[in-house]
Design brief:
The complex is a heterodimer.
Chain A lengths: L1 E11 L7 E12 L3 E6 L5 H8 L7 E6 L2 E2 L7 H7 E4 L12 H11 L4 H14 L16 H13 L5 E5 L7 H18 L2 E6 L2 H5 L4 E6 L2 E6 L1 H5 L2 H6 L6 H11 L11 H13 L1
Parallel strand pairs in A: 3-8, 3-9, 6-7, 7-8
Antiparallel strand pairs in A: 1-2, 1-4, 4-5, 9-10
Helix pairs in contact in A: 3-4, 3-5, 4-5
Chain B lengths: L15 H4 L2 H17 L3 H18 L3 H25 L4 E5 L2 E4 H27 L2 H11 L10 H31 L9 H7 L1 H24 L18 H23 L1
Antiparallel strand pairs in B: 1-2
């Protein structure tokens, strides 16, 4: 049960003067149950990459396998793939269209051909998973606040019960509180259901706290693919491609440089605190 | 997907045609369209085709790119051809069931197809080589005299430039929303007409909302910059004819005279 990308290449506008080589020879294995951060600067190809994962874009070269089957085989059921690999687009609230919240969340499972009862059960469960109270269910989605709209949109994908959930910049345009709430909710969801989550972002700070693996994209290629603490060791290279390591990395590096005997691999404030206390105790 | 439609979009390139004054290109396009209806012999169409081919060559827009944008119009073209083919009275050529293809019908159908496709390629050459902004600048200048008969020239050209500017944006938006709904299992392709029309709701509602939102934002941004219409507005880059533009007018006059001559003499 995994997703495999084998030498995937993608060129926008192939054979025109405007051709852009958006993905260059991407090889990735995404096993079950991982929490992955996909990071890259604007235009690094991360959004293009995630659209390959559920077959929305066909690679111009290479192949993608889900559970051992080529997703671009002629008789492969793409609709089923899309229910298993749920993709939440950037600003997903722009795709809401139904007259009330509940109906909008029902759209996905209904398209899968499920019974009315099953559809509604799933919609209810999904709305609960994103932490939206009953009082919102029969409101127009357009009357909600930005953060609430986004939850509804995420619930719309969750209601299809995906095995892999991909979120493209789920926190874009939200205030710090809304951002933390959404990310915490996703982390909780991951813990409870054990699904694979891929979090696309350009902010290291956002993902460092949650994910167990970081894939860094730069100009259409995978630059690093490792545990967060390993990736952040390259903080200087990350800066060069317009990204940054979390602030604690900089503090630990600066302390180490000034002669304090601390390790530099802390990724969260808690870890940094413990590491500094340990160093001071010696 | 939907972004493949190239009609009405600008194609960036360094060419003689790109550098021409937009007024020249506008007049040339109108002239070319008129010329298509002036000529009615095969010689005339060959001349028009040659003229068009030269312009395409000069513009450095790849021919394949232009044709790709025409795919959307093939359907409309086919309707015209079919109607002309079967519904023109005259000397019958082939008859099957109740339908008759006449000699005159065949002639008109082919001529119509040629005219229409030249017309479309010719006018898309203009939009491919002229940015929407300079196009409306040119239009405003050309229609300038109409101001004296109380035609809101500036307002009309502003509306046109906004409409043109929004075509690629809305296409991109359509593409995005379509993908988002497909990711939720929506199906835009299969089913009968009623089912297909119903399937458009999840696409059209968000699209309308976003169009209104964008229009609101734009109006706000224009107000914030104190935009209040055409009176006393100056241009950063006023349009001025140069040698190349005059030469282009010369070429156009020659071509047009040629077309008229063919019509009169043949």
């Amino acid at each position: 049960m995994s997703l495999i990308l084998d030498h995937v290449n993608y060129i926008y506008g192939e054979d025109t003067a405007l051709a852009v080589h958006a993905l260059k020879d991407i090889n990735l294995v995404i096993p079950d149950g991982q929490f992955i951060g996909l990071i890259g600067h604007t235009g690094s190809g991360k959004s293009t990459l995630v659209q390959h994962l559920n077959g929305l874009i066909r690679p111009t070269g290479g192949a993608i396998y889900y559970n051992g089957e080529d997703i671009h085989d002629k008789d492969y059921d793409k609709k089923k793939l899309r229910s298993k690999v749920g993709l939440v687009f950037q600003y997903p609230e722009h795709q809401l269209f139904e007259i009330d919240v509940f109906k909008d969340v029902c759209f996905g499972p209904k398209n899968l051909g499920l019974s009315q009862k099953e559809t509604e059960l799933r919609a209810y469960a999904a709305l609960k998973q994103v932490g939206l109270g009953d009082e919102y269910f029969y409101q127009s989605p357009f009357d909600l606040s930005g953060g609430q709209k986004r939850r509804v949109a995420i619930a719309g994908v969750l209601a299809m019960k995906p095995e892999i959930l991909i979120l493209d910049e789920p926190t874009a345009g939200l205030d710090p509180k809304g951002r933390d709430e959404i990310l915490d909710q996703i982390a909780k969801l991951k813990e409870e259901t054990g699904i694979t989550v891929i979090l696309v972002s350009h902010s290291m700070e956002d993902v460092a706290k949650y994910v167990e693996r970081i894939i860094v994209m730069n100009r259409g290629s995978v630059l690093y693919d490792d545990e967060p603490r390993q990736v952040f060791q390259h903080y200087k290279e990350l800066e060069q491609i317009g990204l940054a390591a979390p602030q604690v990395t900089y503090i630990m590096q600066a302390l180490a440089k000034r002669g304090m005997k601390v390790g530099t691999s802390a990724t969260t404030i808690q870890e940094a605190e413990q590491e500094i206390l340990r160093a001071l105790a010696h | 997907m939907i972004r493949d439609i190239t009609l009405g979009q600008y194609y960036q390139a360094e060419s003689v045609i790109h550098k021409l004054d937009p007024r020249v290109k506008l007049v040339a396009t109108i002239g070319f369209i008129i010329s298509l209806f002036v000529v009615d012999s095969w010689v005339g169409y060959v001349v028009a085709a040659l003229f068009l081919a030269c312009m395409i060559k000069l513009s450095k827009v790849p021919f394949g790119y232009m044709v790709k944008g025409m795919k959307a119009i093939v359907f409309i073209l086919m309707i015209t051809v079919v109607f002309n083919l079967f519904l023109t009275p005259g000397e019958p050529l082939v008859t099957f069931w109740k339908l008759t293809i006449t000699k005159e019908g065949l002639r008109i159908a082919v001529m119509m197809a040629v005219r229409l496709s030249f017309l479309i390629v010719g006018s898309s050459l203009m939009t491919l080589t002229t940015t929407p902004n300079s196009l409306t600048d040119g239009m405003e200048k050309l229609m300038g005299p109409l101001k004296y008969v109380k035609v809101p020239v500036h307002e009309v050209s502003m509306m046109m430039s906004i409409a043109l500017r929004f075509i690629p944006i809305l296409l991109e938006e359509t593409d995005k929303i379509m993908k988002a709904q497909i990711a939720r299992g929506a199906d835009f392709e299969s089913g009968n007409l009623v089912k297909k029309a119903k399937a458009m709701v999840p696409l059209l509602v968000p699209l309308f909302i976003s169009a209104f939102r964008r229009a609101n934002d734009l109006a706000m941004a224009m107000e914030a910059r104190c935009y209040r219409g055409g009176e006393h507005r100056t241009k950063m880059k006023p349009l001025r004819y140069r040698a190349a533009d005059r030469a282009a007018y010369g070429v156009l006059v020659l071509y047009f005279a040629g077309c008229v001559a063919i019509r009169v003499c043949l």
